[in-house]
Amino acid sequence: MHPLGRSWLLLGALVLFYVVYLLFGGLVFSSLERPVEERLRRHADALKRGFLVNQSCVSAAALELFVGQVLAANRYGVAALRNASADPSNWDLTSAMFFANTLVTTVGYGHTTPLSDAGKAFSIVYALLGVPFTMLVLTACVQRLMYPLVAAPLGRLQRAGLEARPAAGVHFLALLALVLLCLFAAPAAVFSAAEDGWSFLDGFYFCFVSLCTIGLGDFVPAARPQQKFREVYQVAVMAYLFAGLMMMYLLLRTFHKMADLHGLTAFLQLPRCEESEPDEDREPIVENGHGAARKRPSYAAIGER
């Protein structure tokens, strides 16, 4: 098999295994946490019914106990103020996969947390393996995108007459504008339309704290009861998080390489961003019929001009 084809086949296998890993995590988390959640829901409903029956003779201690139990249940995603048993579970398969996704991407909204000791222990092991594996998959994807989104546009800008450093600056600004439009502004408009009570600023804020892996958890998609197409929506958000993190990593790599080209990293005595395009991804271009291979344009080649 051609080295380039083998490289893309390996990338496809990595992404497929990543999806299987998320599915495995979702199944385990769902099986561990959903029974505990259901018991908590039944307990919250019983507390509510008992309070309503005995509200005429409730003592201060009983009221404090009730409020404390309600707050504890709400912290785990069980709302005792509504019909808790009728709300969608936080630990069905897609919700559990969504939690697994936020766990291994280190976003961690905190709206759903493991209830059982077994779930907490599994979270440690799952994240211990999943976080570096996620970084590996993201790195592999970014590596394949460096030529079509970075090196090739830079080559076109230089062929158009721009010098190396201005071309790098123009390219970075264009890539930044593309990321802001496609990964912040457009998704923010979608979230503001799909989520009740979210403004465009709320959606943009959610995109920012998610793709920067801050994950404050004050805005979480698909958390509203009776959300239409909730499962499909959660899968779409998971795909958005992966694509967004990948592009943010690409943007950071591009900025680092531009800083190398402008001498900023050397001035600050920081390590250079090493050239990471593997040889198998560089397709030879035959020139003058002699079979001489010309490498694709790269930041390293630009810096030498």
What would your notes on this structure say?
There is one protein chain. This protein is mainly alpha-helical. It is 68% helix and 0% strand. The radius of gyration is 25 Å and the shape is elongated.
Strand percentage lies at under 5%
| Mean pLDDT score | 81
| Total helical segments | 9
Topology order in helix (H) and strand (E) letters: HHHHHHHHH
Distance between the first and last residues' Cα: 35 Å
What characteristics describe this protein?
single chain, 305 residues, mainly alpha, 9 helices, 68% helix, 0% strand, elongated
Q: Any chance you could write out the topology, listing elements then pairs?
A:
Blueprint: H1 3-53, H2 60-75, H3 93-104, H4 117-159, H5 164-194, H6 200-211, H7 230-261, H8 264-267, H9 299-303
Helix pairs in contact: 1-2, 1-3, 1-4, 3-7, 4-5, 4-7, 5-6, 5-7
